[in-house]
Design goal:
Elements: H1 6-20, H2 26-115, H3 120-133, E1 137-140, H4 148-158, H5 166-179, H6 181-184, H7 199-211, H8 218-228, E2 232-235, E3 242-244, E4 253-258, E5 267-273
Parallel strand pairs: 2-4
Antiparallel strand pairs: 1-5, 2-3, 4-5
Helix pairs in contact: 1-2, 5-7, 5-8
């Protein structure tokens, strides 16, 4: 049997009542109008109930979905906050570790200053001061952090209005060495075996020159001399000056090499014009 929706049944009944009353029968027509009005009111009420029933699952679904999305958003925010805190924490730890290393190095330098006030460093400084004074120069202190040779070179270049950064000097020195392997490889040996560096060891050495605080020496100075096309003069206390890149003309870059600097090993300083103010230990 075919099931007819109640609302459709009422609507059909109303239409049938309207069509079934003679136009000239005023009494029956009046009654019909009243009956139709009741049926239409009933029909409207049914429509409202059906709409409410349809909206209830939708509203419930929307509420559940909104609640679920809210939880997901909170989880994402918590995850982002945790990740941000982790990044900050790691960065803070790196800064603290770097600060601790710098402090330790400064403490070692201070201790070495006291121990060497009348020792090898003090005597070396006096000799260097005398050598430089004859040329109207004095030592310009460069921090002892592994970059001293490059920073001393950088300082000398600035006096000539040549502005190459520490990173640029390192990168260019490493690149020159890579492109002139035969000029540098024979002077590099493995400290454990005494054998000349392999190609892999040489490449690793160049990488360290370029991107680490690896200490620089005569090989790196020779590379820089060719890169800059300048002569480099290295003044020492107990030996004649070393001249690198003699084939280049012009005023040389002047560096000071110290064997006993800070009691921590070899070190390079820059030079500047002599003034009345002493630059050595008070």
């Amino acid at each position: 049997m075919l099931n007819i929706h109640p609302s459709l049944s009422i609507a059909a009944k109303i239409q049938g009542m309207k069509n079934g009353v003679p136009k000239n029968d005023k009494k029956r027509r009046k009654q019909l109008v009243e009956d139709v009005a009741k049926l239409e009111a009933e029909l409207e009420q049914r429509h409202e109930q059906e709409l409410e029933q349809l909206n209830q699952p939708f509203e419930k679904s929307s509420t559940v979905e909104s609640f679920t999305n809210g939880i997901k958003n909170l989880e994402l925010e918590a995850s982002d906050e945790k990740e941000a805190k982790s990044r900050v924490s790691k960065a803070q730890k790196r800064r603290e570790r770097k600060a601790a290393q710098d402090k330790e190095r400064e403490e070692r330098i201070a201790e070495a200053e006291v121990e060497n006030l009348k020792g090898a460093r003090h005597l070396e400084s006096q000799k260097l001061a005398e050598i430089l004074a004859k040329r109207h120069l004095q030592i310009k202190q460069i921090p002892s952090d592994g970059h001293c040779m490059y920073k001393a070179t950088e300082d000398q270049l600035k006096k000539r209005d040549i502005f190459l950064t520490l990173a640029e000097l390192r990168a260019q020195a490493a690149e020159y060495m890579r492109s002139h392997v035969d000029d540098f490889l024979p002077f590099l040996t493995n400290p454990n075996t005494g054998d000349m560096f392999s190609s892999e060891e040489f490449e690793k050495y160049c990488d360290e020159v370029s991107s680490t605080p690896a200490w620089g020496g005569q090989l790196e100075l020779r590379a820089l001399s060719h890169v800059l096309k300048m002569t480099v003069e290295v003044i020492q206390a107990d030996s004649p000056p070393i001249t690198i890149g003699e084939e280049y003309r012009g005023t040389p870059i002047i560096l000071v090499y110290m064997r006993h600097a800070y009691g921590l090993g070899e070190h390079y300083n820059s030079v500047e014009q002599l003034t009345d103010k002493p630059t050595e230990d008070p």
